[in-house]
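Bench notes, afternoon.
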Amino acid sequence: MAWIIGAVAVITTFWFSRKAGAVVLGILAAIYVGLFFTAERGDHQVQSNRPVSIVAGPDPQRCPDPSTPVAVTFTNTTDRTLQEISFSLIARQSGHSSTIYRAYHRSDKIVAPGESFSTCYGLNPLSFSNRTIQYNARELDWFAEISLTRFVSQ
């Protein structure tokens, strides 16, 4: 539909002035080329946060090392292979709404469709909102927020 509207605009403009028609043709050509490359790039880098679930929390069985107390599990629920994920690891004190810990992480672990991947993360002391208090990681409420997912191009 956009092609038809553009063609009508160019023909109408050429009808009144060849110079103005050439300018309109150039502008429309630049717009169409830009839209073509934008749409093409978007097809190869699909970024969606919905098809991947993420769960974070202290898990002494899965993460027995006290230096890496927080287990994070990614589950790829799509039919495409997960190539990369970026997320925030967040903690709150039980019964409180204020965030006391936030750290950004990235994983390039490839996760096949329908599969899960778990790993343990350590805590960055600079990521606590109050650095003078010593928190026990196993007593905090943990969760994660996905900021980016990238899938393998098909």
